[in-house]
Amino acid sequence: MRVSTNANVVRTLFGFAPRVCLATSLCLLAIGCGHLRLGATTGEAGRQLELKLPQGPKPDRNYLLYLPQTYEETEEHWPLVLFLHGLEESGDDFELLKKHGPPKQADQGKQFPFILVSPQARVDEGWDVDALGELLDEVEKRYRVDATRRYVTGLSMGGHGTWTLARRYPDRFAALAPICGWAPADTAQHLSHVPVWIFHGLTDTVVDPSESKSIARSLNSTGAPVELTLYPETGHVGAWEKAYHGDALWDWMLSHSLASSLQGD
């Protein structure tokens, strides 16, 4: 396990050069009962789409979806990153989903070389891992997703959601990046084969940094490929602002696949 307290670690740990990636989005198709479902691409690049996934008797679930710009130009299967937001972004307001992290960056025009899926949790429910699994199933039915290159990241409550989702589906994700989250006690035994990069601010007063330190130690004891980045003089929000800055995290994620994880590479 590598532990760093260098505030610039996102840039210095790997030394990757920034890269420019092209991106695009989807259009909306309205179908029965007014539900909005995944639709066909329209060539509208750099715009994040607001979609809903019907969930039976419960209210529809909001999510944002983003496709790479060159998605339609080839038959390539693309990596998928699932982003899980924090507590304050829960509800039924798409604008809340765009407050932090990758959805904020996509809304501001950042271009990603992967499919980005950003669901919204309902107020007072937290992250429903079964609903998240269903959402991923739906996206994978309709789009060319590389099943060996699925990733999940999240902040605060979404950091916790990252741990619980991966614990529930330990063979579904090629890498995890939880930020200032907390994990169930038995998480390490389920994820000993999954590459994880954990981030936390050392002056976080919302989720104690000891949560990330503890799960990192547990994973390390199993031989898991885990990295822990601790940002000095950085609070709750600052941790994810630093972690998502630049492309180092995405470069690290995209370097992993399920095949390489299972082989121990």
Please summarize what this structure is.
The chain is an alpha/beta fold and 265 residues long. It has helices at 9-12, 94-97, 101-107, 129-142, 157-168, 187-190, 210-221, 236-243, 248-254, 258-263; strands at residues 2-4, 26-31, 35-41, 49-55, 58-66, 78-84, 115-119, 145-155, 175-179, 196-201, 226-231.
Written description of the protein model:
- It is a single chain.
- With 265 residues, the protein is of the alpha/beta class.
- It has one domain: Alpha/Beta hydrolase fold, catalytic domain (Rossmann fold).
- 29% of the residues lie in helices and 27% in strands.
- The chain has 10 helices and 11 strands.
- It has helices at 9-12, 94-97, 101-107, 129-142, 157-168, 187-190, 210-221, 236-243, 248-254, 258-263; strands spanning 2-4, 26-31, 35-41, 49-55, 58-66, 78-84, 115-119, 145-155, 175-179, 196-201, 226-231.
- The strands form 2 sheets. A 9-stranded mixed beta sheet has the order 1-11-10-9-8-6-7-5-4, with helices on both faces.
- Helix 4 (129-142) packs across helix 5.
- The two termini are 15 Å apart.
- Residues 7-41 have low confidence and may be disordered.
- What's the CATH H-level superfamily name? Alpha/Beta hydrolase fold, catalytic domain
Overall, the morphology is: globular
Helix content: 25-40%
Q: Name the helix and strand elements from N-terminus to C-terminus, one letter apiece.
A: EHEEEEEHHEHEHEHEHEHHH
Strand content: 25-35%
Radius of gyration: 17 Å
User: Mean of residue pLDDT?
Assistant: 83
* Strand order in space, largest sheet: 1-11-10-9-8-6-7-5-4
Number of helices: 10
Structural class: alpha/beta
Termini distance? 15 Å
How many structural domains are formed by the residues? 1
The CATH class label is: Alpha Beta
CATH architecture: 3-Layer(aba) Sandwich
Extract low-pLDDT stretches: 7-41
Query: Assembly type of the shown chains?
Result: single chain
Tally of extended strands? 11
Looking at the structure, the CATH topology is: Rossmann fold
